[in-house]
Amino acid sequence: MVFGKTTVVKGEPEDEEEEEMVDPLETLRQKCAETKHCVHTQERLELCETRVGSRSQTQEDCTEELFDFLHARDHCVSHKLFHSVK
């Protein structure tokens, strides 16, 4: 069985050094967060956080902006994730 670049035979790793397994979901989330649409929604979220943080008394929060960013990122991930899973 193969995990990453390390070969495992009958539960015993070969003489190669073991490499840490990388979660493909986290890798894709990072790549998708760098796309044009995700960068735009993340900028809107950061502006909102700055605006809300600068006020001492406000009922505003940035829930909508956060959900917009997460939706955009996860939409991108959903199109790519299962192509990388074996």
* Cα-to-Cα separation, first versus last residue: 12 Å
Uncertain residue segments: none
Query: How do the SSEs run, as a string of H and E?
Result: EEEHHH
The CATH level-2 architecture of the domain at 24-83 is identified as Orthogonal Bundle
Q: Could you outline the blueprint of secondary structure elements for this entry?
A:
Layout: E1 2-3, E2 6-9, E3 12-13, H1 24-33, H2 36-54, H3 63-84
Antiparallel strand pairs: 1-2, 2-3
Helix pairs in contact: 1-3, 2-3
Question: In a few lines, what is going on in this structure?
Answer:
The protein is mainly alpha-helical.
Overview of the molecule:
The protein is mostly helical and 86 residues long. It is built from 3 helices and 3 strands; from the N terminus they run E-E-E-H-H-H. A hairpin with a 2-residue loop joins strand 1 (2-3) and strand 2 (6-9). Helix 1 (24-33) crosses helix 3 and helix 2 packs antiparallel against helix 3. It is elongated, with a radius of gyration of 20 Å. 9% of the residues are buried. Residues 1-23 are annotated as: Disordered. Residues 23-86 form the Ubiquinol-cytochrome C reductase hinge domain. Disulfide bonds join 32-76, 48-62. It is a peripheral membrane protein.
